[in-house]
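lol ok so funny story. i was supposed to be doing the assay writeup but got distracted and ended up predicting the structure for this chain instead. priorities right. anyway since i did it might as well share w the group, maybe its usefull for someone
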Amino acid sequence: MKIAIVRRECGLGLGGAEGYCENVAKGLAKQGHQVTIVSRFSRVKSHGISCMEVPVLGRGSLLKNLSFFKGVSKVLKTDRFDCIYGLSRIEGADLLRISDPLHVVWLELGYYGCFLPKWFRSKLPRHISLVWQERRAVTTARYIVTNSNLVKKQLVHYYKINPSRITVIYNGVDLSRFSPLGPKEKRTTRQELGLPLTAPVILFAGSDPRRKGFDVLLRAIAPLTNTFRFHLAVAGFNPSGTIKRSINRLGLEKRVAFLGIRQDIERVYGACDLLCLPTSYDPFANVCLEAMACGLPIITTNQNGASELVKKVADDWVIPAQQDKPLRKAIGNWLSMDNLYKQELCRAFTKVAFKFGLDQHIKDLGRLLNRVAVCK
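and the output, tada:
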């Protein structure tokens, strides 16, 4: 089958969705499909995968997003494909995958932490354009695949999409890369990262601290320092002056270690003991599945599609978004557990993650793409 995979940027190390694009392209090519990546920029240069470039105009996000949306249709018309798999907002996809936050939902949630009122933001040209592109994408797609039931319900609610057009396929994790570390390797990795060797280490991983709820996490853990010995490791971004001031004001400067942007995030997972992601909104935060595969328990919010997997182990570790008190309680409960129970939790989360390997995801996706192409 000749498949076009559309994503504005594609490649490992560029972001979760961009890395997914490369992994899926390679996986489908390995199944024998003829795969073409249609993008502004792609790092994929081998594996028998071809690329088609979409010119993008302008410097601001408004023009970039709009020119890519318009340019994709022109580029796709230059060839004939059995199935067009859209990973970005595009018009007329045979199968459209929703993995980025739905913009209409993010506007409704209020862009937590933004000083502009919601009604005013919705009138700005950038947001008008993004919502229009999103509406065109979801209403013109023949079929839609989401990575959580959370997003499926949102599509039905906000865009009145017929549920029969939507299939849920959870994200897949590369189990050859993400797996638990042994005790000796964990200790060595902590030494290399500059983390304490014996104290529990909580991990926050994400490139967007505002949307991912980093401020909520800081407020949650600050009172716990009076009772518990623990450390917070932060991966995915470098702290701004505002964040540094918040940490100092809360008296956390000796408890927080910033590890920066990592290409070896699997080692960071392996060195830590618990992942906390109090995100305001994530269709499915892949860091949760990756961390679970590395043996970490997860505390996250009900606005994260990955919470559907967390609930299979610990329902009470799925908390409301933007609330530090429930988060503090969940972290405190974990810190109070004895080591044997913590180990049981780690095994339970890992067992769930191992059901969602990347190979299985690509098999499920391949079957869906075949069905979509047959019905074309």
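The mean pLDDT is 91. The longest strand covers residues 34-39.
back to the writeup now i swear
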